[in-house]
Amino acid sequence: MGIFRMPSLGADMEAGTLVEWLKQPGDRVKRGDLIAVVETQKGAIEIEVFEPGTVAELLLPVGATVPVGTAMASIREDGAVAVAPAPDAAAMKEERPTAAATMPAPQLQVPPPPSQGIKASPAARKFAEEHDINLASVPGSGPDGAIVFVDVEAAWQRQGGAAATTAAARTGAKGDGAPVDGMRAAIAAAMARSKREIPHYYLGQTVDVTIAADWLAQRNADRKPEERAVFGALLLKAIGLSLKKYPEFNGSFADGRFAASAAIHLGMAIALRGGGLIAPAIHDAADLPLDQLMIRLRDLTNRVRAGRFRSSELADATITLTSLGERGVDWVQPIIYPPQVAIVGAGTPTVRPWIVDGVPVARQLCDLTLAADHRVSDGHRGALFLRAIEALLQNPEAL
Amino acid sequence: MTADDIRQILLEEIGNIAPEADLGALDPEVDYREKLDIDSIGFLNLIIAIGKRLKIEVPEKDYARLGTLSGAVSYLVARKRG
Predict the structure, then answer these.
(1) I need a labelling partner for A229 at 20 to 30 A (CA). Which of A209, A235, B19, B48 fits?
(2) Beta strands A34-40 and A200-208: pairing type?
(3) Which residues have C-beta within 8 Å of that of residue A360, sequence separation ≥ 6?
């Protein structure tokens, strides 16, 4: 009998609230199946199973607070004989108090409003929590019926704003001062840890992306909108391929040592509407054809903004790209997301003067930056890594 | 389909991308992508949605003509007639 524990959701999240079981005792599961939904500061996260088997028992009630590492369910391995729970009773006894100890009793007796299975954006969830609105009672008008900010706001107005404000005051955190925002706290914890522990070094390179941008425009010209790619997808692909030659930027640093990752899972910093950001991973990004990579990028962005994504996407990134998009500023000096060891920044591509063959000409330029962990690599290798990305962008048809 | 119908559909789809926005207060002459902070993926979603709702495929070279609400409505009305 294996005990399934709450997986890590990245360096900046320690716990969530169980809102829904997606599997029941007796259900067979395989690696990657979704077993539960846990609500966190970053939205509803679908928790995936690591080992195949059959769900024997769910160890936590809906509404329980679930710190990382908590025993959530027992899963019987394939082939194991299903006997009475006796053989495992000792193990289970051992597990349960751990889980119970982390859950304040009142929370168990009074689970939060049943919001399980509800699709809602992070902004909507935050507003609902602050204003004591039961999401189950709110009709959603967003994509696939998801509850979006305006829906909760409307519900709040229907309830009478004043009453709801009292409820929010009762929960204590809000007032005239800055509210303690869960996501802000999570970002603060991860970034403070990064700045405290990781000796960053920073490099930058202005890259002529005219060829890449023209190639992309030409490629998109006769395609349906659904099949068009954005510049960010090209960047992801170029970074992914470059990492194969520069593995010291792809992996994690823990317990005093660097572990290079064989897989290249590119984290993509995605800004949420209403503030905050999440950097979930696109798995095995280097080996995806550009079209597939674009589909995954759009799908991931939309799911993150709708507030529902998977546990492995949050925890698995081996490096991150932060791209300022079409309407940002020239460059960013990014902060590494621990336990990763590097992050690439891409400024907004703009047309600027550039010298080509001794002549000033107007070219589309993009400032690429790299922040990397000096415990793992040196600036010389970092420069070569950035140059490799630059070189690939000069030959976009190979991407 | 009238210009008003098209404006209505466009506003609904912008609302799906920027759900917290007060679209009633949106100046039709303003750059709404800037105003509502719609990034390239958000805008691509809008173009895809317009394609589905209005059966108009907007080529990338025409994106600039959809920069304001009034510009977008004129463009889409012309495309619908054309």
Answers:
(1) B19
(2) unpaired
(3) A353, A354
Domain count of chain A? 3
Sign of CA dihedral A254, A259, A262, A264: positive
Calculate the alpha carbon distances from A282 to A253, A309, B56 in Å.
20, 12, 31
Same-domain check for residues A168 and A254: no
Which residue in A149, A150, A325 is closest to B40 by CB distance? A325
Cβ(A205)–Cβ(A32) below 8 Å: no
pLDDT per residue as tens digits for the range A126-177: 777 766 677 777 777 766 677 777 677 667 666 655 333 333 333 333 334 4
Tokens of A230: 């954005």
Which residue reads 């949106």 in tokens?
B26
Choose the closest CB to B19 out of A148, A301, A326: A148
Query: Least CB-CB distance to B33: which of A230, A302, A327?
Result: A327
Q: In the structure encoding, which two tokens stand for residue A374, read together?
A: 């000096």
Q: Clarify whether residues A129 and A103 are in a common domain.
A: no
Residue A116 belongs to some domain of the structure: no
Token pair 């759009």 is found at A298
Compute φ and ψ for A78, nearest 5 degrees: -60, 135
CA distance A35 to chain B (A): 29
